[in-house]
Amino acid sequence: MKFQESCRAYLPKLSLYISGEAEEALCTEIERHLEVCENCRIVVDTLRKTILLYRTWGGQDLPEDTKERLYHILDIDTFLDEHDL
Ligand SMILES: [Zn+2]
Question: What is the CB-side half-sphere exposure of residue 51 using CA atoms within 13 A?
Answer without folding.
Answer: 17
